[in-house]
């Protein structure tokens, strides 16, 4: 019997390369070995996009279209929209009684996200409780495995703690979900930071070639390689990660960079 997976994406705008390599590409392969539930997390999207929801319905529709194009198969996987199923928020309310505010405030992922948005001293109740709603998303379907990036591990640990707490009080109901780490969970954006819609540094899956070229030519590179013949450090260069993903001769580029035979613009 296949183990059950649940994973989702927030509706905060068009999907980008970070979404694809950090999650979506992995989801497609997981369909072969797991019973998959994939969630359009539109309620989670409100944690940062609550002030402007005019494009929300469009984002939901376009997200599902991108999933289907990438290879998510509705004949093998369940696709669900979070806000369409009231049990998500109902279970989240129950779970919120089982975790303290102090525990949620220690979550490094929320702190990092709030700091990046300039909201460290203004975290909303809903934003702070993001991991509790996420726990209800997973445990409502008794998810056993969750494909995540490293930054989501603290959230998953809270879900595991909630499951243990609930089971100890009311009998064993929920499994403790285990993580599957993706290979490229933190694809850098064009500014060298993690690719994120909120940071405005993304390359969108549906972006036209001219726009992609312009962004790539302005990408952050190895700051120590000032001149073309300076030895480079590919491991410290975000562009090198893109070579590893897209180029058939990535090793040659890395070697030429290290030996000062190519400049950053040549990439």
How would you sum up this structure, described in words?
With 267 residues, this protein is mainly alpha-helical. The chain is built from twelve helices and five strands. It has two domains: 4-181, Rossmann fold; 208-266, Tyrosyl-Transfer RNA Synthetase (Orthogonal Bundle), CATH 1.10.240.10. It has helices at 17-30, 42-49, 56-70, 87-96, 101-105, 108-116, 125-128, 130-140, 153-170, 209-217, 238-246, 250-258; strands at residues 4-10, 35-41, 77-81, 145-148, 178-181. The strands form two sheets. It has a three-stranded parallel β-sheet with strand order 1-2-3. Strand 4, helix 9 and strand 5 form a beta-alpha-beta unit. Helix 4 crosses helix 8 and helix 8 (130-140) crosses helix 9 (153-170). The mean pLDDT is 88.
Instruction: Give the neighbour order of strands across the main sheet.
Output: 1-2-3
Which secondary-structure class do the elements indicate? mainly alpha
| CATH topology group of the largest domain | Rossmann fold
- Largest sheet descriptor: 3 strands, parallel
Q: How many structural domains can be distinguished in the coordinates?
A: 2
**Secondary structure tally: strands:** 5
CATH hierarchy class name of the largest domain: Alpha Beta
State the shape: globular
User: How many DSSP H or I helices?
Assistant: 12
Detail the poorly predicted runs: none
CATH architecture of the largest domain: 3-Layer(aba) Sandwich
Separation, N- and C-terminal Cα atoms: 47 Å
Order of SSEs: EHEHHEHHHHHEHEHHH
Strand content: 5-15%
Using only C-alpha atoms, the radius of gyration works out to 20 Å
